[in-house]
Amino acid sequence: MSTPTATYRIQFRNGMTFERAMARIPYLKRLGISHLYASPIFTATRGSTHGYDVTDANEIDPALGGRDAFMRMAAALKGAGMGLILDIVPNHMAASLENPWWRDVIAQGQNSRYARHFDIDWSRPLTLPFLGDDFATVVEKGELSVQADPQTGHPVFVYFDNVYPLVAESWQGRETEVLALRDSRDLIALHELQPWRLTCWRTAASDLSYRRFFEITGLVGVRVEDEAVFDDSHRLILELVNSGVVDGLRVDHVDGLADPLGYLRRLRQKTGPECYITVEKILGKGEQLPADWPVSGTTGYEFIAALSDVLVDDEQLDDLRKAWHQVTGKAVDMHAELRAAKRLMVDRNFAGEFNTLVRLAVEIGHAEIPVPQAKAVRQALRELLIAFPVYRTYGTAQGLTPADAERLAKVVAWVRESEHAPEPDALDFITRILHGDVAKSMLQQAAHFRTRFQQLTGPLMAKAVEDTLFFRQNMDLALNEVGAEPLPRTFSLQRFHREMQTRLEQQPNALSATSTHDTKRGEDARARLYTLTEAPQQWADCVTRWRHLNREKVVLLDDGPAPRPAVAWMIYQALAGVWPATLQADDAQGLQALESRFIEFLEKALREAKQRTDWIETNDAYENAVLDYARHLLSPENQAFLQDFTAALQPFIRAGLVNSLTQTLIKLAAPGVPDIYQGSEALNFSLVDPDNRLEPDYEELERLLSDEEQADPHSQESWNSGQLKQFFIARLLQLRQQKPRLFQRGDYLPLTTSGPQADNIIAFARQDNDAALIVLAPRLLFGALEGSLAGAVVSLPAGLANRRWRDILSGEEFALSDSVHLRSIGGYTFAALVSA
């Protein structure tokens, strides 16, 4: 298998084309990148900003330059000795009339060749929830009419810019008559003749006849478990891999598939053993990737979570939590908050999917004597879904795997003893369905139930935790990241070392991410916000002072103040994370640029929290009050606050830059393949999407790299520009290319530290026979930024002792006996010592 030494993620679209990416190849080569890692490049809806709304999986998007430009880019990469990894989207396509397969289904219903390509429940008409109101009301308003299709001349329903083809049976032989229909009753009758129903978008959560991606009605599930559908949707992908144009694939949302293992085995069989394959998969607490998946590993969210063990001050975390509780006015019960978020998802956001499962269970129950009551079945199913601790199990038509059966047994036992325990008989009944322990006549229905259950637990977890709880509970935003544990836990260096040893054993060639197109904030914003755990009282005092300075901008609404203190805490923290390192209080232009990004983030944060406003029922008065509060914070006229804020932020900025280099050095040397998200080789203070998908300033990045000799650790400008971070990356990536076996297979050895500052350093080694690397980096230095780590001693095991070493960061060479005294390295407390 061709394993990358380092990947570089580029977000195509929004101006980034194949030609423009090709111009960056020399820069990526100098940086030390082995593989360009491309966001989806197949044809998507017009104006798509991300490419996950694919309309043609067998065409390279002309908006990006089309196939010719793509092939030129691929050839340029090969010419530079680099590879190419594609992000593919097997789970869903765009439910858009631009999608020829979807349009054909609308035009022909179940007679369409593609009727079984999409995950549609054909026991009833296909629901198309894209109207602003119900069908009859839309017709009465005159917003919908019958017209001739500009392409075919045949009758179609036209709703603003959307054209819905009518099935031929409903108009053939009377085409002129149908085109003349204007009466509401006639239009309603014509609508009833279609194999689909146009409905209001608000009904999608409760009444949808097709599987969607999470809550996005415009993305319809694809049945890639069917071999014919797999072949149709992977024709171009396989051609590019098997011809050697593409070296690797990143599988988006693998947990959404009906049978992830079956899909991955087919993909591996079709691509061959050399293709590098990773999967987007969130691993829960204590969870590992299934051992039988034929992939190199995940895309690395669990690596982000592991880094918090290095950079969170666990000893002071309780003080930050207490300060947060004082602001919220109560001690927060995170177990209860998680339950509330998951219940909201079950009862509202995914009500349709939940009701489908209840209906399936009741149907299966008809073969049982006695039949459990539908109400009891509903309660038992709800509690099981709420209690599920990981994204999903991986049962197939044959039943659950032994590991999944064991996990299910633990969850059921917990539910049975909980304060919300459902009726035991109903819980047993649901459990038996999941095991396939039902009447023989119901085995197929039980398998279908199991699949749908497994496809629902993931979206429930993701939307409840990442997109609800993490926007409600804002003690430290750095901990509210994709893949993070939502419940309180202990953070420790020992845990991190164990995680890395497990990572080496389980998935040594997985991607190691720190920023992605889906992370809640950029890696350097997260690095800065970790420092709040080192100075909790200082931070709390700052927020109290800032709230007082801006108290006149708080608006009292009928449902309470806007913003409430807890939301204000979040606003100040998010602003602290995104604040450019060199932005000054009197920089009106810089403040305006920041405001436009910050307001967009804040609106999303308020709606995702789903407390006083949300995406379904927006509360304009509340939103406007909070957004105006944030605008006031960034107004050049608000100098009293801005001067205080910038001054108070300085120690957090400095400590955050130290954290940034520490997490970067760890990522480059720890088990896994380091993935550099576009622009993150310098500083990335981005907010949640779409802010994190903006194109970086490549001209400035190239200038910094070409001037890497100026990457002086004693120069504040080198820190603030990100040049020092970029320098670290370039040096380590060059070493990874020189010694790939050391990083792919070398042992991970935690090193023992002692002395007065032993807790302020992370030390580990990678070793493969004679090849070795020692990594030393500072941690938890908020209160000692001006001092060095002199006095800390790192002990070396026999295999590393009595050798000569070269620090690839400083260029210094020296001999070490059985320990490293940090004073011997000088004031530069970062070191990457390679055996000379």
From TrEMBL:
Pfam families membership: Alpha-amylase
Domain (Glycosyl hydrolase family 13 catalytic) spans 12-428
Query: GO molecular function of the protein, one example?
Result: (1,4)-alpha-D-glucan 1-alpha-D-glucosylmutase activity
Q: What are the recorded Gene Ontology BP terms?
A: alpha-glucan catabolic process; trehalose biosynthetic process
Which residue positions does the secretion signal occupy? none
> Per its UniProt record, what PANTHER family does this chain match?
ALPHA-AMYLASE FAMILY MEMBER, MALTOOLIGOSYL TREHALOSE SYNTHASE-RELATED
Tell me what this protein is called.
Answer: (1->4)-alpha-D-glucan 1-alpha-D-glucosylmutase
- Upper lineage: Bacteria, Pseudomonadati, Pseudomonadota, Gammaproteobacteria, Enterobacterales
